[in-house]
Design a protein that fits this description.
Elements (H helix, E strand, L loop, with lengths): L6 E9 L1 E3 L12 E3 L2 H17 L6 H20 L5 E3 L1 H12 L4 H10 L7 H15 L6 E11 L7 H8 L2 E5 L6 H12 L14 E12 L12 E6 L5 E11 L5 E4 L4 E7 L5 E8 L5 H7 L11 E8 L1 E8 L1 H6 L20 E14 L11 E3 L7 E6 L4 E7 L4 E8 L3
Parallel strand pairs: 1-7, 1-15, 2-15, 5-6, 13-17
Antiparallel strand pairs: 3-16, 4-19, 5-7, 8-9, 9-13, 10-11, 11-12, 12-18, 14-15, 18-19
Helix pairs in contact: 3-4
Length: 420
Amino acid sequence: MKRQNRRIILIVLLALIVLSGISIVVIRCIHKHKAGDDVIELIEKQLDEVNKFCGVETRPEEGQSRTAFALEIFKKVCAASDSNVCFSPLAAEYGLMMIANAADGQTLDEIMTAMKRKPKMLEQMNKEAKNYMAFINEEHLDSVSMYNMMWLNNLKEPSYTSKCKRYFDAEISTLDFNSNDAKNTMETSVRKKTDGLLKPEIGDISDAKIILMNLLSFKGKWKFPFYKEFTRKSTFHNADGTEAKVSMMHGIYEDGDCSYQHTDKGYSVVSLRFSDRHYEMELYLPDEGQSVDGCIAKFDNAPIVREENTKVYLDLPRFDVSASTDLVSVFRTMGITSAFNESADFSKLSTPDQYVGKILHSARVSIDESGCMAAADNAVFLAELCLMNEVKLRFDRPFFYIIRETDSRTVLFMGRVNKL
């Protein structure tokens, strides 16, 4: 009977990534460098110093906590499913941060520990979250946007919403969750904020009292474009033994165009740069005979040690992958238990008799060849001619990937492609 009187918090974590403008410069024999790139990079570094002066800075400890959290949740999500995995650790973390500000006692301890932080660091975490959100929402060449929203079911605003506004720039709205228009209003808001690219199905909300939404969107252009005329139909070997016909993009990277490393953990990794130097995509290809899950189990998020003097021939399929999951079971395995049952301590809410009922996370990743072709124009070749090692990477079997902000190595999105 006691459980029937409990109120439920429903957290909806939504994330979207669409990588348009994929770009690789092809058919070149010597290292190239664009006229003016040094000047642009110098200006960007000076702007970074301004950001640090203004407080838009991530401490090394925060970056380490964030990446450790991302790696743990990625491995647990992959272990729980044989399907494609697509999610945003950053969006999930911001959802937990907002809930942490309503929690106390054991519930707060468990949430902070799962995020690799100490409970006494709550206020410091809030300040760093505010600064980091300001950083990624800046007007870069690539469009990176984060939105945090709180929907209240005919409730007076809880006192803790002031923190959500101050540190997470949360939009607070009141609705009647039992009305026919409630879900449509929320889903329409998500579609608008993601330019129609994420279309969530929120499900039953009649028992919910508070719904939190954390949206992260990213539209990136590769620094060097793939050209459509080099794309060919090819075969992708799915994890379940079936085969799929895919559009395989092809590009050639001269030494320095990308970062490549063959590791001793049974996989190779190539990092492709976006036109905005703050972001990159790392693609991990298991060696022949190695399983993608075996490689993920050994993955330690170590920085890439670029192999010098190497030309990379890359075959990468177009793909558009989406996935949805309830993260409650995953967070339970990470030590968050009291938040999901009657022992939950959300005493910082004005109506504290509540617990977390569901954590729904949806994400989408889509890449193709389109993008700015200007990267190949007005190139000034500076490097000397040299003999190069040649590496061929063909992503025709299951692989995993990371979209990363490079300054703090924060993971925006992670995924595993098992089937196309």
